[in-house]
Design a protein that fits this description.
The structure holds two protein chains of two kinds. Chain A is α/β, with parallel strands linked by helices. Chain A contains nine helices and ten strands. A six-stranded mixed β-sheet of chain A has the order 6-7-8-3-9-10. In chain A, strands 2-1-4-5 form a four-stranded antiparallel β-sheet, with helices on one face. Chain A is globular and about 55 Å long. Chain A starts with a strand and ends in a 10-residue tail after the last helix. Chain B has one domain. The chains are: A alpha/beta, B mainly alpha. At the A-B interface, α2, β6 and α3 of A face α5 of B.
Chain lengths: ~250, ~260
């Protein structure tokens, strides 16, 4: 479980997270939604220690990570996998080398065993025959799937998804969402999905948190969020131009 | 009245913070070099990129540097009737000074800029974050191999520069301008000491540290997209070059 308490973070004079409180339950898919530029990705990066807060606490399975040194933090990060917004594939490596990278660097598996595991991971995400391609030869959806295969490879207990379907067409977006649901059911990991794909994200989530102006203003099941009477949540879900959310 | 003072204070504190961050960077990079596991594959790859693939530009630069030294040296020494000392002049200039400095400047322009751009692009496309999320140390993969390769490659490139430069001076001085070949190499052998050679090597080694340090640092902390990477690359080359020249003065004054 991930617990964030009174989390605050500023970049220069811009306050992004403002004494935020959030609990991510284990073994479930939690979606974090909210208007663009509200700090969803910043929040996600705090969960894995890529950013340190100005104040507040982030606990992963009861361990406070904000004050950990590199060695301890790396130990906690062994539990995580992450799919970045643009997949963050290593562009000088092939698809095979990208997916195999954590196994080659962290395990003593033989080349044959690594090849087997990579093939299996790519087949889980519906990608075969692209092992020799480089990231710049792949479509956006394919890059995301390779990123997901790489994230799944080390059997993580928690996977963070940073806008996994942004920039993809509706068909590929649905396929990615379905893939997240299927791999979650198969491997049982805790998933945190940052998204503003409404209403698709509700189809795969067990719980939803709404981030607005640096705080979590509402949490609940997808059904509860969809029937919320909070004006901010209503405007965001309805996609209306009228309401408290102002265009900047 | 307050605002200029505030700005001056903020600017000074910002500069001090950046210097501290740079110092932390190199100290952690050196520490990461000694931490297990080692990555010989990555080091060899960087040695090829920084060292082997810089050979052509080093050969070209060295040849023409030696040739111009031969030309200028001959006409200067001829005023004193000392043309026979051309070999000494060319060799000592190259071995003590021009070899280490010019080879370092060439590597800065060629490999240093590429290092900054590579790491900078990895930073802005979150590839460095991806390494961290895999519980892997970015310094061990990105910085330490380049630091080790730079330290190994620069003295070797400097040696190549010196040899090719001496032959460039020979080509002009002896073949073109008629200096006695025996005098060219004979006087050189009498004048060049082991101290001259190792001081040049020590300079090269330290320049290697500067190049890897500055170029990796600038790339690692690049931000604001493509323009940020471009600025980081320019800044890395300029800062490396200036630091090489400044450090050259101080280390020369110690080694002399």
């Amino acid at each position: 479980m991930i617990v964030m308490q009174e989390l605050s973070k500023s970049f220069g004079r811009q306050l992004v997270l403002d004494r935020l409180n959030l609990e991510i339950p284990s073994g479930r898919i939690t979606a974090i939604i909210g208007p663009s530029g509200e700090g969803k990705s910043v929040l996600l990066k705090h969960m894995i220690g890529l950013l340190r807060p100005d104040s507040g606490s982030v606990k992963v399975d009861g361990e406070e990570i904000t004050t950990m040194g590199r060695g301890e933090l790396n130990r906690v990060r062994e539990k995580f996998g992450m799919l970045f917004q643009n997949a963050a594939l290593f562009d000088s490596l092939t698809v095979f080398e990208n997916v195999a990278f954590p196994l080659q660097e962290k395990t003593r598996l033989s080349d044959l065993e690594i090849a087997g595991r990579v093939g299996e991971a790519l087949s889980h995400v519906g990608l075969t025959g692209v092992e020799a391609k480089y990231p710049d030869e792949l479509s956006g959806g394919m890059k995301k799937r390779v990123g997901l295969a790489r994230a799944l490879l080390m059997d993580p207990r928690i996977i963070l998804f940073d806008e996994p379907t942004t920039g993809l067409d509706p068909v590929i977006s649905r396929a990615i969402h379905q893939m997240i649901r299927e791999t979650h059911e198969k491997f049982g990991y805790t998933a945190v999905v940052v998204s503003h794909e409404i209403p698709e994200i509700f189809d795969i989530s067990d719980s939803v948190a709404v981030l607005y102006r640096g705080k979590i203003i509402e949490t609940g099941t997808p059904k509860e969020i969809q029937s919320s009477l909070d004006p901010v949540v209503r405007q965001f879900i309805d996609g209306s131009l009228e309401g408290p959310i102002q265009l900047v | 009245m307050i605002n200029p003072l505030q700005r001056l204070g903020a600017s000074t504190l910002g500069t001090l913070a950046a210097m501290g961050r740079m110092l932390n960077f190199i100290l952690y990079a050196i520490y990461a070099c000694f931490r297990r596991p080692g990555h010989p594959r990555h080091i060899l790859k960087q040695l090829n990129f920084i060292g082997a693939r810089s050979c052509f530009v080093i050969l070209l630069t060295a040849a023409f540097t030696g040739m111009v030294l031969g030309l200028q040296g001959y006409y200067t020494l001829a005023k004193f009737g000392s043309e026979g000392l051309l070999g000494t002049a060319v060799a000592l200039s190259l071995i003590r000074e021009l070899g280490p400095v010019l080879s370092a400047l060439m590597v800065t322009g060629r490999a240093g800029s590429a290092i900054t751009a590579e790491i900078g692009i990895m930073r802005i496309t979150e590839q460095i974050d991806a390494l961290e999320t895999m519980a892997l140390e970015p310094f061990k993969y990105l910085v330490s191999p380049k630091l080790i390769a730079s330290i190994l490659a620069l003295p070797l490139l400097c040696a190549i520069f010196d040899v090719v430069g001496i032959w460039g001076g020979y080509l002009i001085g002896v073949k073109l301008l008629g200096v006695n070949p025996g005098a060219y190499f004979g006087e050189m052998e009498k004048s060049v000491e082991w101290k001259d050679v190792y001081s040049g090597m020590i300079k090269s080694l330290s320049f290697g540290v500067i190049i890897a340090w500055v170029c990796c640092y600038k790339g690692y902390y690049a931000e604001h997209g493509a323009e940020g990477v471009s600025q980081a690359t320019t800044s890395a080359v300029v800062l490396s070059s200036v630091l090489i020249l400044i450090w050259d003065y101080f280390i020369t004054s110690v080694l002399l």
